[in-house]
Design goal:
Helix content is 57%, strand content 0%. The protein has 237 residues and is mainly alpha-helical. The longest helix is centred in the middle third of the chain and has 19 residues.
Length: 237
C-alpha cells in the first residue's frame, strides 16, 4: 500500500478507537479572539487547567481585546495561575490584546474572509502567536484547510513515519496536508492528539496496545529491537 492508503487506513482505525467531541462537525463556529486566548493558556499545561484558567479569567473580565488590554496585569496573573507560567502568559495576553485593538480595531473577523496565507501572516504578526496558534484559529474558527501541529501531532507523525525525526513544523504540516483530504484536517488533528495522549506518549509509548501498531514503522522496529524503546523520544518535544 502507498503512503496515502496507509495514512487513511490509520485514520479509519483511529476513528473506530476514539470518540470525537460533539462539536467536531461544526468547525468554524468558534470566536477567534477567545480561541487565541485559550491557545495561549494551553501552553505547557493540560486541558483541564487551561479550561479552569479560562473560566477564572472570564469571571473577572470579558474576553475581548479592549477588556484584556485594559485589565490589571496582576489580576490576570491571579486568574490564570492554575494554568502555570502565569506571569509570561499574562504578559502575552496583555500585549496580544493591545495589538489586536490597535492594529485590527479590536476584531479578528478578517480570518473569515481573507485567504489562508494572508490571514496566517496577520495572525503571526501578533505578539505570542506562532504557526501553531495561528493554525488553530484558522482551522477551528474559520474552517481553513490547515493542520495545526502541536507536540503530540509532531511526535506521532514522526513515529508513524510521516516525517523524519528532524522535520520542523512546516514540513510536518505540509506532509499531513498532502496525505489527507482537507475535509478530514480537523479530525486528523484531533485524532493524532488523542493517539499521542493515550498510546504514543513521547517518553513511554505503549506500542503493544496501540491500535495502529501494525501500520507503525517505529512499533515494528522496536518489536525487533527492544533496546530502542523510548530512544526515539530524544527527537521529540
Amino acid at each position: 500500500m502507498d503512503e496515502k492508503e496507509r495514512a487513511n487506513e490509520i485514520l479509519q482505525i483511529l476513528r473506530a478507537n476514539f470518540t470525537l467531541p460533539e462539536w467536531t462537525g461544526s468547525a468554524g463556529a468558534r470566536e477567534p479572539f477567545q480561541t487565541l486566548i485559550r491557545t495561549v493558556l494551553s501552553q505547557a499545561t493540560n486541558n483541564r487547567n487551561r479550561d479552569e484558567a479560562f473560566k477564572n479569567l472570564s469571571k473577572k473580565y470579558s474576553i475581548t481585546p479592549k477588556a484584556l488590554a485594559e485589565a490589571d496585569l496582576e489580576e490576570i496573573e491571579e486568574a490564570i495561575r492554575v494554568g502555570g507560567l502565569f506571569r509570561n502568559k499574562s504578559r502575552i495576553i496583555k500585549e496580544l490584546s493591545r495589538a489586536v485593538l490597535e492594529r485590527f480595531n479590536g476584531s479578528l473577523d478578517f480570518v473569515y474572509s481573507q485567504s489562508l496565507s494572508e490571514t496566517r501572516e496577520k495572525l503571526m504578526s501578533l505578539p505570542g502567536v506562532g504557526p501553531k496558534t495561528a493554525d488553530v484559529v484558522l482551522l477551528f474558527c474559520a474552517g481553513k484547510s490547515v493542520v495545526p501541529v502541536d507536540t503530540h501531532v509532531d511526535s506521532v507523525s514522526k513515529r508513524l513515519g510521516f516525517a523524519s525525526l528532524k522535520a520542523g513544523y512546516e514540513t510536518i504540516r505540509k506532509r499531513l496536508e498532502s496525505l489527507y483530504s482537507p475535509k478530514d484536517y480537523l479530525v486528523v488533528h484531533l485524532l493524532l492528539i488523542a493517539l499521542g495522549r493515550r498510546f504514543c506518549r513521547a517518553r513511554n509509548p505503549s506500542h503493544d496496545s496501540c491500535p495502529v501498531k501494525t501500520l507503525c514503522p517505529t512499533a515494528k522496529l522496536e518489536a525487533h529491537q527492544p533496546s530502542l524503546h523510548g530512544l526515539h523520544a530524544e527527537g521529540y518535544p
